Sequence to fold (199 residues):
Amino acid sequence: METIIAASQNRGKIKEMEAITKEFGMQIISRGEAGVADIDITEDGATFEENSLKKAREIMKLCGKATIADDSGVEVDALGGEPGIFSARYAGAECDDKKNRDKLLKEMEGVPLEKRTARFVSVISMAFPSGSEITARGECEGHIAFEERGAGGFGYDSLFIPIGHGKTFAELKPEEKNAISHRANALKLLRVNLERQNV
Fold:
């Protein structure tokens, strides 16, 4: 089993990636477990791809080992794609998941069901000491619920209902979510890209 360092400090993301990457022969440990200093990486990219790669590169340079990073968020069509790359800090610098969800619900007040279309986006990047890099983008289409539902997941999971389901991500079992999620789709593509590059 190959050990990969996670650039993310989000335990929810690490848990989801670990559940999927185990199938690919990759064990993920947090950067704290790898002895990497707790630093803030400024996510100043204009896209999920730029932010994901930046995180992977910076942590890889610090630990000298293969690193995996994820940048993800929800894009809401009625809001012109917001919150997008600002999903984690939608309600401001000192926000938390609940405040972000509350703001999204407020912004969506009065928007009918047919116009509440949205997608979760995940871009997973890997940076290797050899200098090679791999990026994979996954998406999951759905719509924004009128109220929070479910106690599972994290982030915007309790507001997002994927196409073909009547439940939010937060109401689905972890294995159900991991089978269809944006992060699962990105990891599936990552596996293909890893095989292509013989990494």
Notes: The two ends are 14 Å apart (CA to CA). The longest strand covers residues 133-144. Helices lie at 11-21, 48-63, 97-107, 174-180, 182-197. Strands lie at 2-6, 26-30, 67-76, 117-127, 133-144, 160-162.
